[in-house]
Amino acid sequence: MSKRISIIIPFLNEADNVENLVATLNNFFVDKAYDVEVVLVDDGSTDQSVEKLADQKYGKYEIRLIKLSKNFGAHAAVRAGVQNASGDYITFLPADLQDPLDLIDRSYEIIKNNGVDIVYAFRKTTNNSFLEKNFPSFMHS
Q1: So what's the pLDDT on residue 14?
Q2: What pTM was computed for the model?
């Protein structure tokens, strides 16, 4: 029996990105060695994100949509996703797809081959501008 991975995707006002998000997920989750549940958590969007998500055709994965009553912040959205996930493993993905999807496969391989329960990944570099990287330090000068 294959394992199930729940992918938590919190979002806020992503109507312009919904079609790209779903198309990318559909293309990625074809013939995987694990089952997939995508838990989309709307953190109080005021645009048409939820309606656009409802109109999409989803691929070979289960979809779950959770709608929070207002914007509670990313941490609350992630927590709501975790509370509603049913997978053997849970991971997180930003709705704007700034993290590569192949991290899911790579993390799963580490779990499967090494008998670990948790895999932690972090970025060595970002594509942020000079101002984005240094704004917090300017605030404390």
Answers
A1: 97
A2: 0.85
